Amino acid sequence: MWLAVVSQPFDCHAVTPALREVDRKSGEFWVPNPWDFATQRENLSAYERNGVYLNLGNGRFANIGHASGADSDGDGRSAVGCDVTGDGRPELFVRQAGGGPLRVYRNRFPDSGWLTVSLEGQQSNRQGIGARVIAHLGKRTVRRELYPVINFLSQAPARVTLGLGDAPTIDRLEIHWPSGKRTELEDVAINRHLVISE
Amino acid sequence: MDPTHTTTARPRRLVAIASAVVALLALMLAFGRTQRREPGLTEDQAKYLQDVEHLGGFVFGDLCLPKFAEALAADNHDDLMAFVSTGFTGAWLLDQDHPETKHTRGHITATKRHRHGIDTKQANCDQAEFIEWLLEQRRHFTSLDSTAAKLKRMQPTTPGKLEGTWDGTLLLRMSGRTAGGRIRETRIELACRLDRISEESPGLKGWFQRLSVMRIDIVESDARLMEEMTGETGIDVDRLQDNWLGVTGPQTPALTGGVYLADYDGDRHVDCLLTDIKGLALYRGLGKGRFEEVTAAVGLPAEFNDLPAAWGDFDNDGDPDLVLGRRFFRNDRNDRNDGDDKTDQPGQAGRRFTPMASIDTGLDLEDSVGFAVADVDLDGRLDLYAVGIGQRTSGQKWIGANDSNRNQLWHNDGNLHFSDVTDSSGTVGRGTSTFAAVFFDANGDGNPDLMTACEFGRNDFWLGQGDGTFVEAELPEIYGGFSMGLTVGDIDNDGFADPYLANMYSKAGERVVANLPADIYDPDVDRKLRDFVAGSDLYKNTGGTGFKRIGRTAGVSDVGWAYGPAYIDLDNDGLLDLYAPCGFQSVTRKRPDG
What we know:
Chain A is mainly β. Chain A has helices at residues 2-6, 37-40, 65-68, and strands at residues 51-55, 61-63, 76-82, 91-96, 102-107, 113-120, 132-137, 140-145, 154-155, 160-165, 170-176, 182-188, 193-197. In chain B, strands 1, 2, 3, 4, 5, 6 and 7 form a seven-stranded mixed beta sheet that branches.
C-alpha cells in the first residue's frame, strides 16, 4: 500500500494508511482517502456557518452572520439573492446538502432606495445580458453589469437591482448595451421595477 | 427521462463529488513526492505529521479546547484560571497601540481591533487580568446563543520536538444578546503558547503559557436583519434531499440540488427552478414571496434528477429558455392570454417548455457540472458555455497539470441552432476539473470575459475579443484552484468587477500544512501546497489591468469549506455585500470534525 502511494505523487486517489494508533474510543477517526468521507460518514468542515459579509465601503467587510440570522450552519452549497416580496430588498435563496435543503430568508434590513432594471435588447440580445447599468446619484455612482451569474448550481435572474441608499432620485441612469448603443435617462424615479428597451 | 442520461450521469457526478472531498488534504499531499525529488516525505516525516495532528488537532483541539469554551460560556472564573499555567503572560490590544475602528450602517455597528504578528515582548497583563478581560467579553452577553472555540494552527515551537512547548492560533466565537437587547457576535483570534501537549492533557490544566489577542471583531445590531420565510413561500422543501434527515445508499451525496431564478413567464415575478437528486420542480412566482408549483403543467420532467441548469433567452423571443443537464427546452408561448397571465391557472397561461432534439439544435451536450451564458461575439444572440465535462481518471492530481476535464462553448447560430466553437474560441480550459464559470467585463472593453473556478489546478481566465475568441490572461501570482464556485460584481463601483472565489478550506488542512517542513518539496510545489489552505479569496480588479488578492485584508477569506457564493446588496446602500455558503459534511455534533 505504501509503495502504491508514493508511486502516485499528488494523486487524489492515493490511499494513505494511518501510521500511528487512532484513538477511536475518544472519537478520533482516520479516513485513508478523501473519497471515503462519503461512505465513512465522518464530519468534515462540519456545521460551519454560512458567511454573511457586509461591505463597509473601505475595502473591508464585516461578518454580520449572527445579526443577519441567515448564517445557517447547514452544509451550504449555493446562494442567490433577489427581491421576491416586492419591497425592493433582496431575499436570499440558499441551497444546502444538509440542514435544510432550501432556506429562503426575507430581507428585514431598514428601508433604502432602490431601482430594479430589466432590459429589452433589440440589436443586443433580448435580455440585455452583458449590459452595463450605471446610476449617478449626486456624487455617488452605482455600477452594475447585467450578467445573471450562474455561480455553482444557482443562477441570478437577468435583472439588476440598484441599491440607492438615501438618494431621493437617480440624476442620470445610463445603459451601455452590448451592441455599443447607449441609453440615458434623467431624473429617474426610484423604488420601482423599470423595463428599458434598447 | 433519457435512460442513457441516467446511467452515465450518476457515476460521473459521484466522481466529481468525491474528488472534491479533500479531507486531510495535506496528509495526502505529504505522501506524494515531486518528480524532481526522490522521495518526498519519508515515512518518518509522514508519521511525524500524523503525530502532530493527533496531539495538536485531536487531543488539544477536539478534547481540550471545548472545555475552555464551556468554562467561558459558563462565566466560570476558576476553571478559566486553571487552564493557564503559572508564569502565564497575556497580551490584549491596547487603545493606544491598536485603536478600534468602528463602522455603523443603519442598525449595525461593527468594531474591530487587530495586530500584525506576535511580539512576545508585548505581554501586558498577567493571568488574572487576562482572564478578567476574557470574561468581560463574555459578560457583554446576558444570554448566549452559542460559544465555540476552534483551532486553526498548532505546531511544536521547535519543529520535530513534540515534547516541548507548542504554538497555535485559536478562534473564539460568542453570539447572543446584550443587556440592552442588542444582537451581538464577538470573534476573537488568539495566538497561544502551550506548556506541552500529551495524551494526558485533557485531564490536566495549566495548558496556556501565553495568550495574545490578535484581533477582535464585534458586530451588534438592534434587530435581526433577515428572517427565514421558507415555510411561507409555498415551496415544498420536504421533497428535496436533506442529508441531515437521512441518506439512502452507501454514499452521502455531496451535491444534492441547485436553485435557478428567472422570470420565465414575463409577469415580472421571479420564478424558481429547483434541481435535486430527488427530482425537478419549477415554482411560478406569485409576488409577495409566494410561489406555486407548475412543473408538470409547463411540460418539464419532474423526474429529472441531474443538477446543472441555465436560463437564457436563446431565441430572443422575450422569454428565457432552459438548459437542463444535457437537454434543451424552448420556452413557448402558445396561448392568446400571453402577457396577461397573472390570474390564469399555472401552466395554462400559454407557457410550455418544449424539448428540442439535439439534431435540431446542434447541441451535443455532455454531462457537465454547470453553465454560463453570454453573447460572446456580440451578434445579438446568447451563447452557452458548459463546464466540468469528462471523466476524471485515476491520475487526477491535487496540483499540477490535469487533462481529464474540458469545457465547451456553443455558439448560437440563430433559430436555436448551436455550433461547437470550443477549439476556435480557445476556451476548452486547462483540463482541470471545473465547477463554475462566470462571464463579466474584466477590462472595460465591453466584451464578455470569462473566468472559471476549478477544484484542482489553476482557475482559467480569458479576455474576450468580442468576436467569439478568447485570449488567456494572467491571474494574480498564485496557484489558485481549490475553487468550488465564484461570483463577480463591482464591490467599490469603480467600473471594474471584482471576482470572489469560494475555495475549499479545512482547519485540519491549515494545521497540517503549517507543520510541513519547508525543505521537503521544491519551492514551487511547496508554495502551491501552502496556497491550498489560504481559504477563499477576493480578486480586486486593478482598473482592468489585472487582479490583486485582497481576501484576507478584506475579511472574507475565513469562510470554511466554501461553495457557490453570491454578491447581493443586502442593505441597498449601493455596495455589494457577500453571502458565502460553506460546510462540507456534517454528520454529528458529538464527534470531532475533520
